[in-house]
Amino acid sequence: MVYLDNAATTKPCTEAVNAAIEAMTENFGNPSSLHRAGLNALLAMDKARKNIAASIGADADNILFTSGATESNNLALRGASAAYGKKRRRIVASAVEHASVDETLSDLENKGFEVIRVSPRDDGRFYAEDFMAVCNDDTVLLTMMYVNNETGYILPVKETFNSAKKRFKDIITHTDCVQAYMKLPVKANALGADLISLSGHKIHGVKGVGALYIRKGVRLIPVVTGGKQEKGIRSGTESVPLICAFGAAVEKLEPTIKERFDRVSALKDRLTGLVSSIEGVEVNSPADGSPYVVNISAAGKRSEIMLHYLESKEIYVSSGSACSKGQQSGVLGQFGINGKRADSALRISMTAETTEAEIEQFASSLREGIVNVRG
User: Fold this and answer.
1) Which of 26-40, 89-103, 310-324 has the lowest mean pLDDT?
2) CA 201/CA 94 separation, integer angstroms
3) Which residue, of 228, 254, 280, is where some domain finishes?
4) Model-level pTM?
């Protein structure tokens, strides 16, 4: 099997699996219980919280656990708009956000907020000044993903957020860092971010757990109410096994971010070199984007058909975001990729465990598919 769909989910690392098993078999108590079994579960969860906090230069008190990045994004946007949006009603976002952000923004728009989505310029790039041009004293929230999940494009989060903070001291900044975390340096203070959404299963943890960084002093209105878990902001008994797996994955990966980035960059260079030599194949991802995500168009062959041809060779890629379930999200169009080129788009996403031989096998099968696949 050649697995090249790591932007959808990654294979859990051994450390994450072992941490989850230990939490299920030994530290299985409820972390809110006052007895020893509860305390042991709490201590295991606290270790994970500290690992994740340290990885972004934060304190453990800044990290709140959720069921995943979709919930983190919802809590950040809904919670901040409810807390600060009584007088300030404008929200500014990029036009290429993940569905969990974009759909939430549409719902807030229906509730009376003014949502302004900033598109790339004709050169396919975002500029901080374009976001600043639409931010004003009425802006409650500025949200922008760090790395686009379909193309690997790196958005100007640091430049934009820090400029916004200087000009509008009360603005709340949020970034969806799912495709950047543990791949690029993500430091809360450097980014100027008040809220950061993270996911466990994108970094060799397990599915069903995420985190939200909340800068000290930032207030969120809870979306889920009940008990007092997670400071009362996110009620419900925490999933200690998933949280421990998340923390273990971070502990393993954090020291090797640069080393892994360099390795995947070399893989990207090899991949783009091979596919560019195939007649009709175009690379949609920018050269300076995240090397972990490469988007290509395969000579007018419909994505779904080519995807299943590759699947028949036990090569697994995607046609875009897994959450879109094969439907076009419109993100490629924002980057100027339309028509047949968009209809034939494939997303190849790698990790440091991806091998050059797997890249070569993919390119060879793609070349065969372009010849053998109809339409």
Assistant:
1) 310-324
2) 24
3) 254
4) 0.96
